[in-house]
Amino acid sequence: MQASSHYPVIVLGAGPTGLTLANLLGVYGVRTLLLERNASTVDEPRAVSIDDESLRTVQAAGLADQILPSIVQGYGVHYFSWSGREFARIEPQSTEYGFPKRNAFRQAVLVSQLCAGLRRFPHVETRFQHELRHFSQDEDKVVLEVDHDGTPVVVSCDWLVACDGGRSGVREQLGIALSGNTFAEKWLIVDLLDRTTPFRHTRTYCDPVRPAIRLPGPQGTVRYEFMLKEGETPEYVLDEQRLRGWIRDREPLDAELPIARKVVYTFHARLAERWRQGRVLLAGDAAHLTPPFAGQGMNSGVRDATNLAWKLQAVVHGRFGPALIDTYETERKPHAWALIEMAIRIGRYMQPKSRLQAMAAQWALKACSLYPPARDYVLQLKFKPKPRFAQGFFMEQPGRAPDTAIKAGQLLPQPRVEWPGGSRRLLDEALGPGFACLSWVGRPLTPEVAQLVDAAGMRRIELVPAEDDFPWPPAPQEEGRIVVRDCEGVLQQVLADAGAQAMLVRPDRYVLAFLEHGAKDDAARLRTLFERYGAAR
Predict the structure, then answer these.
(1) Residues 6+ positions from 398 with CB-CB distance below 8 Å
(2) Cα distances (Å, whole numbers) of residue 482 to 420, 422, 510
(3) Low-confidence residues of the chain: pLDDT under 50
(4) Each residue of 306-350: pLDDT tens digit?
(5) Where are the alpha helices (H) located in 106-164, listed in sequence order?
């Protein structure tokens, strides 16, 4: 069947994952088609929490100024016992990646903003009311048969990315199974509008009679979640008088607010057994389903998009071979499962089945608060699995570094750096959209490494230590070279812990390699890594 048009990448699904991926591909200059079966983006509340890593991706997509004003930045969680007494608080204050760790948002607003962001790119096309009916693939392309209001449309692409949700039709056609569990516990979600109480933090009620959560959001919204008991039917719990009574028990001022949505859901902990088959890739809920207790389901999908976008760009533009795409699943799958496991653990804590279980859980959290390292581990969310890869596209570092050190294959922190003239901005503004090399000013790379850095088109960032001033007289700015001061000393600590004088950073801000000053094998090891993934010479 003859396709009407061909695209390097087609993204299926205009949810947060697909829209994020399309925006990043737009930034990277990849001609992209986004297909969505519905007439518009969703207009109902679904996910409500966006984390610091996802906001860093929003920044990379060039949409931070548009999106940040519509979210509540930096909320915490207060825990209450069955008697209504607060017994613990988790209010993380660190901004390791440039943004607060927990933030409340409205999914309908976010996806609308992401969709509007695509208008910046003439090379990104969006088609709503286009439903995929069937696809086929060979070694060179994927052909899609799409229905548009009863009219068949045929398009083709080099790469198809299925962001079509937990019931992915693409995953089903590929015959890829989901492994994991579906849990017996069901929860009722009620989203309300026009709240009058100003309290901004989540309240978690660890009550064996009826575990519940209250999550304030932006623009006067608030969500309630109630765990259902065995035998309670959706018809029973969705009764408005009954659910308003449950709300009144937690916050009387919320009891009569307008209801935007009420739904009963079951949660899943599942992974697709494969994330790539030929030229078709799975991302977001099509690849993994996460229990809601850690607020990481949507955020994991955004991480998928962040990891995949630059790799697609590198392959589509001929800078690397298709083997680079294989690292997507290698890198993302273990981390996605680690977050699923964290959500399961949090869910067990939040769902005590008896007063004895509730007492034990509360005692354990109180005991942690008596020991400062344990308290910091909990209150600053250090139990969250680090964004660090065990295998993938990075150069493993020989020797030993402290356990606390940033490793190659780990997300680089994002401190503020000072530019000539005194302005202080987040690091990623200096790094730019592609690969970057960070080294100390006045300490040149070896000629062999410098040649590889230049051949890869890396932007060079020369760092001035926090204790020093900018060199005087200032050197003229050159294209692809920026001098900034490490005014917070964060990058100096990263390099010192790694025993390195320079580091290479991927477009998704993960460390590609640490380099030692004058090390003779750095260039050879880097060249071997690039050749393994078919880098163009």
Answers:
(1) none
(2) 10, 14, 19
(3) 371, 374, 377-380
(4) 999 999 999 999 999 999 999 999 999 999 988 888 877 766 655
(5) 107-117
Residue 513: strand, helix, or coil: strand
Query: Would you state the structure tokens that stand for residue 359, as one six-digit string?
Result: 């007492």
One-letter amino acid of 393: F
Determine the pLDDT at residue 474.
77
**Could you tell me where the beta strands, DSSP code E, fall in 163-240?**
178-192, 202-205, 212-216, 222-227
- The pLDDT assigned to 229 comes to 85
CB 192 within 8 A of CB 175: no
CB-CB neighbours of 301 under 10 Å: 29
pLDDT for 382: 55
pLDDT score, position 94 = 83
Mean pLDDT, all residues of the chain: 89
**Distance of alpha carbon 91 from alpha carbon 392, whole angstroms:** 33
CA distance 13 to 6: 18
C-alpha dist (Å) from residue 240 to 64, 237, 247: 38, 8, 11
3-class secondary-structure state, position 103: strand
- Rounded CA-CA distance 13/275 in Å is 16
Residue-by-residue DSSP string for 483-503? EEE-TTSHHHHHHHHHT-SEE
